[in-house]
Amino acid sequence: MRSWVIITGCSTGIGRALVPLCREAGWGVVATARNTAALADLPPGEDLRVLALDVTDAASIAAAAAACAALPLKALVNNAGYGQVGPLELLRPEELRAQFETNVIGLHAVTNAFLPLLRREPGARVLQVASMLGRLSIPLAGPYNASKHAVVALAETLRLEVGREVAVVLVEPGAIRTRFRETLSKVWGDLPERAAGTRYERILKKYLAVRKDQSERYAMDAEACARKILGALDARQPPRRLVIGRDAFWAGRLKALLPASWWEGLLRRIYGLG
After folding, report:
1. DSSP tag of 20
2. Fewest CB atoms within 10 A around its CB: which of 55, 56, 67, 157?
């Protein structure tokens, strides 16, 4: 009997890329998204369930857990999330709150809802998708930095508490190639208007250029990242920490080696905050 994995945030990016890879590897997949219309083009089959799941809605989480109760669920991939950007000085409290509701509180709520199901299966595992920005911080991404630092702390604590029953894998990808400008325009909202006439107007233009260049030069494809995650799903002994991407590896090394003042100076120059 096949083992099943539930994946949050399957409408785009890593989650979407992971669905067909898991199916090809013999997993049954519960693919979830807030709007299941985004998953309508997934090829149907006995190895696929499609569920609506909003990680910020307790009723939606409970309904998804109930729908999976009869499945031999062996893994959960907590992938749903987004990146709120902008200088902290211009950030509204509700924007920070929304970032944490999805990336942190939602992840925690989904984990707790599915742990009882996972405990039934030998070798079960939870994969918490954080980011390299859960170990270091960059300018103009304070809300996202903070949320991913929180995910790292939650994952490491959960491993100490339940790791002998259910393995906990902390996934830390670097930059993933996405539709950069389209995604950014959605999360920025009226930030450019708030920044108009301030020192951040110029800095945000620099930020756009830097992130676009980084995406084109260093970011990895979502499918390449998903293949690494699949490796942790299939592993007999899953890793505690899965760093994905050369940028994630080398940025972490560089931060550890450089004096703090040098590291901060480097980031200020890169992002135009000199």
Report:
1. H
2. 157
Contact (CB, 8 A) for 86 and 188? yes
Backbone torsions φ then ψ of 36, nearest 5 degrees: -70, -15
- pLDDT tens-digit series, residues 76-124: 999 999 999 899 999 999 999 999 999 999 999 999 999 999 999 999 9
Specify the DSSP element, H or E, that contains 108: helix 107-118
CA atoms of 181 and 186, how far apart (whole Å): 9
267 backbone dihedrals φ, ψ, rounded to 5°: -65, -40
The answer to whether 18 touches 79, Cβ cutoff 8 Å, is yes
| Number of domains observed in the structure of the chain | 1
DSSP reduced 3-state for 82:
coil
Q: Per DSSP, what are the bridge partners of residue 152? A: none
Task: Determine contact, residues 147/82, Cβ cutoff 8 Å.
Answer: no
Burial class for 174, CB neighbours closer than 10 Å (0-12, 13-18, 19+): buried
What would the two tokens of residue 172 be?
A: 């830390």
Which residues constitute the domain of residue 162? Answer: 4-270
CATH number of the domain residue 127 falls in:
3.40.50.720
Name 237's Cβ contacts closer than 8 Å, sequence gap at least 6. Answer: none
